[in-house]
């Protein structure tokens, strides 16, 4: 995977130092180095870099006609804020919420 040019999904969020969110840009990222435990990504346009553990990676998909070597589908959201790069896990729900496994005083079924 080293030196592959990838696009990340979800697309990195861009936030100004003041906190204002900027429109997304579908940048490609260079895999600068990789191992069984982690990989280092560099954004050539912005010079941002981040090291991610492989547990942040959901899958890799090819991108034959899209201008990159592939998509790196992440379990996390990359956030570019000023000169910094941060990562936050995406919310996932491992179990289905049903009426039988939730206890609350509000009954949404009574609304209809």
- Beta-strand residue fraction: 35-45%
Largest sheet: 6 strands, mixed
Mean pLDDT: 87
N→C terminal distance:
53 Å
Number of helices: 0
- Rg result: 18 Å
Helix-strand pattern: EEEEEEEEEE
Subunit arrangement of the protein = single chain
The low-confidence parts are: none
Q: What structural category do the secondary elements indicate?
A: mainly beta
Percent range for helical residues? Answer: under 10%
Strands of the largest sheet, in order across it? 6-5-4-1-8-7
Short description:
It contains no helices and ten strands.
Record keyword descriptors for this entry.
10 strands, 45% strand, single chain, 112 residues, 0% helix, six-stranded mixed β-sheet
Describe the protein's architecture and organization.
With 112 residues, the protein is mostly beta strands. A hairpin with a 7-residue loop joins strand 7 (57-62) and strand 8 (70-74). It starts with a strand and ends in a 23-residue tail after the last strand. It has one domain. The protein has no helices and ten strands.
